[in-house]
Amino acid sequence: MTTTFYAPPSAFRGRRVVLPDDEARHAATVLRKEAGDEIVVVDGEGGWHRVQLDHVRSEQVVGTPVETRRGVGEMDVDLTLGVGLLKHRNRFETLVEKSVELGVRCLQPLRTARTEKEGLRAERIQNLLVAALKQSGRTVLPSVPAPRPLDAAVPDADADVRLICHEQVDAGGALLSVLREAFDAAPRPASVHVLVGPEGGFTDAEVRAAADAGFTPVSLGPRRLRAETAGITAAAAVALCAGADGTA
Ligand code: SAH
Predict the structure, then answer these.
(1) What is the pLDDT of residues 192-214, one digit of tens each?
(2) Which atom of ligand 1 lies nearest, measured to the CA of 197?
(3) For ligand 1, which residues put their CB under 6 angstroms from it?
(4) Nearest atom (ligand 1) to Cα of 201
(5) 207 with 164: CB under 8 angstroms?
(6) Torsion angle defined by CA atoms of residues 198, 203, 208 and 213, in that order, rounded to the nearest 10 degrees
(7) Distance from the CA of 231 to the center of ligand 1, in angstroms?
């Protein structure tokens, strides 16, 4: 299998691509690539490039794209996952990695009534995003924006399908049946926004406010899932309902 590297669009200059320093070091010193070898470079904005290497030194690796495709590995549904900030950093990091694999475009950390932790380690998250992007065969680098308050994120959401995961659901229904119904309808939804609470869950008032703003409360089954499991489950359900429609 050809190794995949990441280089942002700014690394494509003229007809050439210059790998970022850490990617260059990896190509030259760890994988011992040589001039003439072919690699795959994804640019994080939907571009997949087969690149022939022109010269390889540990401090600089330059190549020429010989074939470019768009949207490889991407779903045709724009999926946003809003998740309450988690107390356990490693659990949030697991969610970052799995979200990338499952096709999430935006993982929005949320401040809610029951979140405790403030802030995230941006550089570590960026590294996780890039590693998962390359590993999973995607071409769009998902975003993890700065945390926002739930009551600001909810009214701004304009996705075709909006869902809030909650353990006690009276209105709404099971996630899978709500999604199936949405994807069977015409026109097919182009965007989905799913909310998942922090460890302590959403308050009833938060669920009511989201429902008033157009989010359907949905259940993920009779067991109480940890927040990151709930996020992964919801993303997997959307990915499977939407179909893995990569254009590769
Ligand atoms: N309130 C719970 C735990 C919350 S679990 C308590 O402490 O008792 C964290 C989040 O995961 C919830 O806010 C919800 O969004 C989601 N979640 C977990 N299990 C779920 C289920 N069975 N159905 C729907 N959402 C669930």
Answers:
(1) 999 999 999 999 999 999 999 99
(2) 13
(3) 165-167, 196-197, 200-202, 219-221, 223-225, 227, 230
(4) 13
(5) yes
(6) -30
(7) 10
Which residues lie across from 165 on neighbouring strands?
218
Residue holding tokens 């769009």? 140
Q: CA 8, 108, 11: angle at the middle one, nearest 5?
A: 5
What is the end-to-end Cα distance of the chain in Å, rounded?
Answer: 15
**What six digits make up the tokens of 72?**
């490889």
Q: Which atom of ligand 1 is nearest to the CA of 220?
A: 23
pTM over 0.70: yes
Burial of 218 (0-12, 13-18, 19+ CB in 10 A): buried
Question: Tokens 């097919």 sit at which residue?
Answer: 188
Give the whole-angstrom CA distance, residue 134 versus residue 179: 28
What amino acid occupies position 24? A
- Specify which residues 40 forms β-bridges with: 4, 50
* Per-residue pLDDT, 248: 38
Q: From 83, 165, 175, 176, give the residue whose CB has the most ligand 1 atoms within 8 Å, as the site to mutate.
A: 165
Give the position, in ligand 1's atom list, of the atom nearest the Cα of 200: 7
- HSE toward the beta carbon, residue 82, CA cutoff 13 A: 27
- What separation in angstroms does the CA of 174 have from each of 12, 27, 77, 178, 237? 46, 46, 20, 6, 11
